[in-house]
Write the structure tokens for this entry.
Amino acid sequence: MGQAADKKSGTVMVVGGGIAGVQAALDLTELGYYVYLVEKSAAIGGAMAQLDKTFPTNDCSL
Amino acid sequence: MDPYNEGLAVTRPIHIDYAQAVPATYYIDPEACLYLKHGTCQICVSSCQSKAIDFSQKAEEKEIRIGAVIMAPGFGRIPDATLAKYSYGQHPDVMTSLEFERLLCASGPFEGEVKCLSDRRHPKRIAFIQCVGSRDLGCNNGYCSSVCCMYSIKEAMVAKEHDPEVEITIYYIDMRTQGKGFDAAQQKAESMGIKFVRARVADVMPWENNLKLTYSTLDGMHRFEPYDIVVLSVGLDAPADAKNLGEIAGFALNNYDFCKTETFAPLLTSRPGVYVAGAFQGPKDIPESVTQSSAAAGLAAGLIAKDRGKALVHKTYPKEQKTGKDEEVRIGVFVCHCGINIGSVVDVPAVEQYTEGMEGVVYHAQSMYSCSQDAQEVLKAKIKEHNLNRVVIAACSPRTHEPLFQETLKDAGLNRCLFEMVNIRDHCSWVHANEPAAATEKSKDLVRMGVAKARHIQPLPEQTVPVTAKALVLGGGVAGLTAALTLAEQGFQTTVVEKEGTLGGHLQHLSYTLQGDTVSTVLGELIDTVKKNKKIELLTNTELSQVSGFVGNFSSVLTTSKGKKTTETTLDHGVIIIATGGREYRPEVVLDNPIKYSEAIVTQRELEQRLAGKGKNPAPKSVVMVQCAGSRGDDLNYCSKVCCNHAVKNALKIKALDPSAQVVVLYRDMRTYGFAEDAYRQAREKGVVFIPYTMDNKPKFKGSGKKTSVTFFDPILRDEVTMTPEVLALSVGIVAEGTEELSKLLKIPVNEDKFFLEAHVKLRPVELPVSGVYVCGLAHSPKPVEEIIVQAQAAAAKAAIPLSKGFVSVEPTISCVDKEACIGCGLCESLCPYQSIRIIKDENGKRKAETITASCKGCGICASHCPVFAISMGGYTDEQINAQITAFGAK
């Protein structure tokens, strides 16, 4: 983190570390931007991490 | 209390939410910690051997400079007060759907066993109540939460799988399974015996050992039923801190405290540079959240395109050491306890000891958690210390953990393919949990086989393929134009191909939206912006006639017709976005009634054109609208998602033009999901009459033209009613157009309804199985314009990834053709699902197969079918697999 903190440009902040925030952060890094992903709880994953299975593949959510 | 399990289980004040949590670091729950609450205890400080607990840490404020913000705070909870009328909080067996989800889950409070919370008995009867905290002005949530119908069906089906004997009833107002493939799921649920009852639930009360659920049906009857568990299908509320967030970041909220956005700019907040994604933009499910996230990422990237790559930090690795074919094999074996996950069943020390003296094994060890950070450091140190050049890890599943260990190998200067993983968790300790001795023996067998394979594994090269930084967008409707604009704003040259002479697609035929936008104005602006953008080339009257190549290196032939003259141009490009759209379906039979379209019998689109017309009397005096005309099993097998909104939009327009006009809407389920529910309510308030019909009792049409009468059953009157409206408006669906031809051209699969099949329904909703090809709009599935725009932006964002990188990385485990042995039969080319192996002519003019490394997914189909064994898979050569099989027999 320290390396980018003093850079002024090319960075994006994503507020929320659920599936939406994580996906946005991943895509932004793939597109060439440094991301600050801000999540208030101790782990990312949000509500999706609490789901058992997801339709229609019944894949485990984790 | 364990918040991860919705408070249904207890945990310690210092804990980790779940085993797979990221970061996998324990944390102290400030609400439960005796020191933080009462200033006592602190036992943890002295007992932590790593001295990792430091209570002197304080929250810090940091100031960072950023170019854009994406708001994705998710959704909030429906307040308990709203749930109280169903005895939630008073009886433990009344639970929310999220609590029930935890009960179903193997990591839940009863390890996946569904039990009543009151007395731990297994429930025999379960009820779901829909629309709890949604479509309910009582709690100020007038909107529909969009996801509850589908998740209830899923939970009901999973509960049925746990116990096929359990009886499940879902009480609903409308089943809103409008998503792609969702209706099919409901049909499956019905076939599993899950009951669906259209009713309003009055209350739920404790009743001896059970719960009494009282409900009223449309015919005005009150009934009650006993249940063991009642699940409340709670909706998605706005995030609790939405107001605060809006104030801090300076953007506006809507009247429900979700982020305020516009139909044609769904992800822009009221503050420039701040984008929104996910449920905070409006209640939505996972695929739509994921789509919005990619789209928002693309928009943010467009905003700060000039700074791309400036802040990126690249990880560096030590130089890879050379591992020659003749070099001495030095294998290190690491056996993992995985806490008690493996260690409580498999005798890990015995398995480790078993490798002593095996050919090639120069080091072996065991570890408590081989995936932990300190274990990676140990692994690196041991590789160096013992000069290991092959690593075997006996632990869990390579599906989840192989990348982590391979990364460590790279950090230690080893090629990441000099690695073999043996799964003694899933294959031994889990499936043979009750036979520890046999599980240990099997672990030894698997480790012996893994070591045998490891003796033959070779380093594989890390390759990259360059990318032509240009995009081809097929379709010049709102999806194609939006995708092109999103790409151009990120700086990429884009060619849009439209087969018609004009741009704009279906939007050209729409006049207004449910939210009141004037479509022609917005569309005109979009077309102007696209035309002015120097990075976008527009080709009308043009179609794609040929494609060759692969991700990063496509070459297409485009055919333009001008009158009788056709010209062909060839275009080199790196990616393809399919935005070819669909078309209105015009069924000739609706609900068994033959249809002759006329001025009096029209589709909703035709009605809209009449209502928006400048004629003297655009509003008909009386209209009957029929929903699902030709959809949902009437003819097409799916829901077209837009027709209910379209009907409500037109009904409101009629009422606005002439409040005395009579409008009756015959429907199966009104699917005005999300904030469109407000319009549905408004329509009822204005006197539009909505009457449900069923497929057992379909409306009948008689006569023709202006004398067409409609007879239907009114469940409230409990009688047949006949009307002769001025206009009969059919809410027809949307069908895919030209997807089959394109599917053949690009070798991309379509689903049974002829829409393109995405790479992963949930997590890769705009990518297709062929690398470098993306989909958006109606070619993916029917959807309203707001969702089309988001999907187009998402497809553009995904397509921009290879374009901005300038290369695509090739996985080392891909197929490789031995050109000497290949007989050029072409079997592999015809079988490859990813179009990644092709037949070329070699220098002697002989047909030979060649792997397209950039798009090969390493599935192995070609290698397993090659009649002359000319194809081998990196990391899975015949030599390696034979060694494994031989080792299996050589106990």
